[in-house]
Write a structure and sequence with these properties.
Length: about 550
Amino acid sequence: MKKLFVPCVLICLICILLLTSCSERSGKPRVLVFSKTAGWHHSSIPNGVAAISKLGQDNGFLVDTTTDASWFNEDSLGKYAAVIFLQTTGDVLNNYQEADFERYIQAGGGFVGIHSAADTEYDWGWYGRLVGAYFNGHPQGTPQAMLHVVDATDNSTKHLPKYWQRVDEWYNYKKLNPDNHVLIELDETSYQGGTNGKTHPIAWYHDYDGGRAWYTGLGHTEASYTEEPFLKHLLAGIQYAMGENKKPDYGKTHTERVPDADRFTKVTLSQGVFSEPTEMAVLPNLDVLVSQRRGEFLLYKKESGEVKRVGLLNVYWKAVTPGVNTETGLLGVQADPDFAKNHFIYAYYSPVDSSVDRLSRFRLENDTINLYSEKVILEVKTDREICCHTGGSIAFGPNRTLFVSAGDNSTPFDEPNQKYNTYSFAPLDDRPGYKQYDSRRGAGNSNDLRGKILRIRMNEDGSYEIPDGNLFPKGTLKTRPEIYVMGNRNPYRITVDQKNSFLYWGEVGPDANADSIGRRGPRGYDEINQAQKAGNFGWPYFVGDN
């Protein structure tokens, strides 16, 4: 047995060594220093580049430097044990480069952010979580302040005194990642202008999305890059980010690479035959069913290329009141997930004889929608002879969950003959007789289906159930259990990721083009939103990034 045991051990050791050698890079570790700026350009960038290059020479790692974002591709990034964002600002990477950088980190890469790396890529939430926070202003100048080392065991802080007084530009932060392991805090009582309060982190690290991230808010001044305590702090951060100098393992990534634009070819199927189309459903045989606001269902036939009318609903699409531009009508259409078997389609429309928007199921057979097969599923009460905001999009998620959007059914324009007006901000007039100018009655009302995205689970007989996880549990007083998302102005088109059930929608925002923080609120923003779970998205009290 002993004779057999020794060879087995040797074989195991050889396998381990082979696997280890395959995952490790040969030669010295290499880092990339990236210092592109699309906003403020720090004069200390050349000092930082020179200092990091010297740290590499003295400590056994190679340093490449660039301001060229085209280096952010999979082939190039794969050479580096860590990437250092040195004083970057603004939007420095395009969507192709962002995706490849995400994949690099997910494959086990390292990241170091220095100072204004936190003043970078505000519209890329993944990056903000990688850095650990976003910049949120700073006091004027470079005042002297007291730093408190809260973790003196880390290699990047163990050489520092517990209380470290130095001069720098002191950032305030927002959207701090709760997973940050804080190394150093800033004492806001030692200077003027801090806004983070008693706990004001200024350096931290954390494992993130498969990789390693280390950040320091120090390093604004040119003198920083000649100060030995700061350079030791920075060196240890770089060494942490480099890790064991392993090759990236792209088998662990979950972000997809962005395909090149030339891989897509636009083919026009039909044109010139549509009038106010609102939504379409691609059927299993690749025919396309299109809804039009004035009540028509059109069907594009894949085999012949023909477009023909297959149904007409009598809808309320035009106001009687002069000067009122209503947005109602046939607003959305979707095919049942089992359409190939049951031939059911769903429509969200405004019936001409009732002040509601209605979700109904019909049967589509032999290229004809049987209007007599209608099964009314749900109705949203509305006010008519006013403008605007109807929503009306329909989407199925996994397990026969059906989502439908409803606008806030409120008028965003100025009220006639009034001293005070909306001026394209949120309509919030709760006086009797002015309810159309108050979005709170719908979007802000938990007992009203307007200004919402609803989620139900369809049964075969056309009835529905309330799935778990909606915003209000069934039976909650003064709520509707169908509500999944509330606080919407006009969630016009929606879609659902079939893999994870995440809901996405385009939110049509108000027209105000300048902030009025002291009086009316923030300016208008259109939004692209994601809901991973039920929630209140704020309208009419908030708009934009809230």
